[in-house]
Write a structure and sequence with these properties.
Largest sheet of chain B: 6 strands, mixed
Radius of gyration of chain A: 17 Å
Oligomer: heterodimer
CATH superfamily of chain A: Aldolase class I
Structural class of chain B: alpha/beta
CATH architecture of chain A: Alpha-Beta Barrel
Helix content of chain B: 40-55%
Distance between the termini of chain A: 27 Å
Strand order of the largest sheet of chain A: 1-2-3-4-5-6-7-8
Shape of chain A: globular
Number of strands of chain B: 14
Number of strands of chain A: 8
Chain lengths: 266, 402
């Protein structure tokens, strides 16, 4: 059982839902990322997704792309990110999951990436550009190391593919709310709640919803149908303000924002 | 005949693999559209009326077959093998790109999709896509890096005249790689109603196969024209390689003829240091970029490196997966030609034959001239003259301070 499995099994027993912030490692620097992860975990966030900056992220909207570019402009490396995680994971209660492009995993070596992420204290990984038919080898390595390999289901995924994905995903299922890239949205698709309900009939895995979630209203609407909610761009956009304001002020602002979402989660 | 047994034309497999290379590394959102595209493409290949429609467009709209021309004065100047030019520059819109865009435009309509997006580097694929879309009344958006918009201005204006919207891309290096990223992001949101007409043999399966097949008309015609004009196959065939579509289309019909040398020429830029060139097959290693496993220029963390070429169409850090397969099997020999040598070949072809080649194509011309000088007059070398150089005249003038 990975730490992700333990988390959701505990939450299920308590009848509670997870709030899962996404932050970009190294934006504006790794010390800030470490402090923020610790403070968000302390506030009560249940799991933290750590984005590994990538030069060509095709699933990401302008906010996360820009954060990746800022971090890469400062030459943040995978080794430095894993060092930061090693120091952080031991001190926080929230499991940490890396969101990482397959380009990076492949270059590092599949076995080496899984081993190094595990040694750094990560509980799982999400590889957004690795569809299920290409994921067999990595899934095997993750299973052997007891790391969750979280796979994505989207509104364009056929019922047959969904079946294949739920059979191989571990930890939870990441349900992408929209047909599109990451980014805040005022309106979520009207059929979202129904789509998640249909997915629920096909799997025992926890279902977490991401893409577009940014307001307490979104949280109140979706918490009843999901096991967890992922908030990325809305946080990353605020962190971008570190360019013109003090990092402490920005951190406080993010904390206040996340506290509001946690309150809406109930 | 010394048939090369290590490389075969029977690729890719169902998973889009050319040997180890290729595959499909894309967000889940796009997989349904890629499956649909693979299905419709297969059906279209078996549909005689679809093929007849495409053949008619190639013949009467593009002007195919393009000539195979004996370059007499270029041959004399090199003093060796006889050089022939496969004149893709004579196609409508001035390059090989139109062969593919017409096929994919027909596929777009077959799939019932109402909008087209594309990326472009040199602007040739952008113009060819805008042209096919104008021909069929499809709305068209072309993503183009800001740096390429500057250096390929005539093509930008043409695309707009043809009714396409050109969206400048300001992220990253502001060249072809970033244009592909932006087109992919558009497609992530629009995939249910939009087809992405990729311009090269790159990207996730089935794109490398589809683009290769549509461009293979180049190699098929070349074989026939060689039989007609010299009574046999050529000794060597030379083509430039960025993403690699003209080379793939020229080489593919020759792959099973192991006695025909196939030579791909990458952009050597300013030198062999990382960042100075765009030659992943010469200097890179296998990795993942834009949905495919192939040779790529990356740093040790897997971040894509910046690349350089004087020609916008070759200024790309990746290459089509079938080229990686041909490199791995040794079927095609790849080398790099630097900016300066390509520019000299641009001049030579203009002055000996009255043909202005594209800067991309000039890399292949340079390599073929070098090769011809070392071979006997009995031998025949065919250059894929992939595009015309009018689009480059202003940039060449700027480089020379004219």
């Amino acid at each position: 059982m990975s730490a992700v499995d333990e988390l959701f099994s505990r939450l299920k027993g308590e009848g509670r839902k997870a709030l899962m912030p996404f932050v970009v490692a190294g934006d504006p620097d790794l010390d800030f990322t470490a402090r923020l992860i610790a403070s968000l975990s302390g506030l009560g966030c249940h799991l933290c997704e750590v984005g590994i900056p990538y030069s060509d992220p095709i699933a990401d909207g302008p906010v996360i792309q820009a954060a990746y570019s800022r971090a890469l402009d400062k030459h943040v490396t995978l080794a430095a990110i894993l060092d930061m995680l090693r120091g952080t994971a031991a001190e926080v209660s929230a499991p940490l999951v890396t969101m990482v492009s397959y380009a990076i995993v492949y270059r590092h070596g599949l076995e080496a990436y899984v081993a190094d992420a595990k040694a750094a204290g990560a509980a799982g990984l999400i590889v957004p550009d690795l569809p299920v038919e290409e994921s067999g080898r990595l899934a095997k390595i993750c299973a052997a190391e007891d790391l969750s390999l979280i796979q994505l289901v989207t509104p364009t995924t056929s019922p047959e593919r969904t079946k294949q994905i739920v059979e191989t995903s571990t930890g939870f299922l990441y349900y992408v709310s929209v047909v599109g890239i990451t980014g805040e949205r005022n309106e979520l698709p009207p059929e979202l709640v129904e789509n998640v309900g249909r997915l629920r009939e096909q799997t025992e895995l926890p279902i977490c919803i991401g893409f577009g979630i940014s307001t307490p209203e979104h949280v109140r609407l979706l918490a009843p149908v999901a096991d967890g909610l992922i908030v990325g761009s809305a946080i990353v956009r605020q962190i971008a303000e570190c360019e013109s304001r003090s990092a402490d002020e920005v951190q406080q602002q993010v904390e206040a924002y996340v506290a509001e979402l946690l309150a809406a989660l109930g | 005949m010394s048939l090369d047994t290590s490389a075969t034309s029977q690729v890719p497999n169902e998973a889009g693999r050319f040997g180890d290379f290729g595959g499909r590394y894309v967000p889940e959102t796009l997989t349904a559209a890629l499956d649909q595209l693979a299905r419709e493409y297969e059906a279209a290949q078996a549909d005689e009326s679809f093929q007849a429609q495409l053949d008619d467009l190639w013949r009467n709209y593009v002007g195919r077959p393009s000539p195979l021309y004996f370059a007499d004065r270029l041959t004399q100047q090199c003093g060796g093998a006889r050089i022939y030019l496969k004149r893709e520059d004579t196609n409508h819109t001035g390059a090989h790109k139109i062969n593919n865009t017409l096929g994919q435009a027909l596929l777009t309509m077959r799939m019932g999709k109402q909008r087209v997006i594309a990326e472009t580097g040199a602007g040739q694929h952008g113009v060819a896509t805008a042209t096919a879309c104008a021909r069929f009344g499809l709305p068209c958006v072309v993503y183009m890096g800001e740096e390429d918009i500057r250096r390929q201005a005539p093509n930008v204006f043409s695309m707009k005249l043809l009714g396409a919207e050109v969206r400048p891309v300001t992220s990253g290096s502001r060249t072809l790689r970033d244009a592909i990223n932006e087109a992919m992001r558009d497609w992530m949101s629009s995939v249910e109603t939009t087809h992405y007409i990729i311009g090269s043999v790159v990207g996730p399966h089935p794109f490398p196969m589809i683009v290769r097949d549509y461009q293979s008309v180049i190699g098929r015609e070349t074989k026939q024209q060689c039989f007609d004009q010299i009574g046999r196959l050529p000794d060597a065939v030379v083509a430039c390689v960025g993403g690699g579509s003209n080379a793939a289309g020229m080489f593919y019909p020759f792959v099973d003829h192991g006695d025909v040398e196939l030579i791909g020429v990458e952009a050597g830029g300013l030198g062999s240091q990382i960042g100075q060139h765009a030659s992943p097959l010469s200097y890179g290693q296998p990795g993942v970029l834009h949905g495919s496993f192939s040779y790529v220029m990356q740093d040790e963390d897997g971040q894509t490196s910046d690349v350089h070429s004087v020609s916008a169409g070759l200024d790309y850090p990746g290459v089509g997966p079938e080229h990686s397969y041909w490199k791995a099997t040794g079927r095609v020999k790849y080398s790099a030609c630097d900016d300066e040598t390509a520019l000299a070949a641009f001049d030579t072809l203009a002055r000996t034959e009255g043909i202005l080649p594209a800067l991309e194509t000039s890399h292949a011309v340079a390599k073929a001239m070098e090769l011809a000088a070392t071979r006997s007059a009995d031998e025949v070398i065919v250059i894929c003259l992939s595009g015309r150089g009018d689009k480059d005249a202003a940039e060449v003038a700027r480089l020379r301070g004219v």
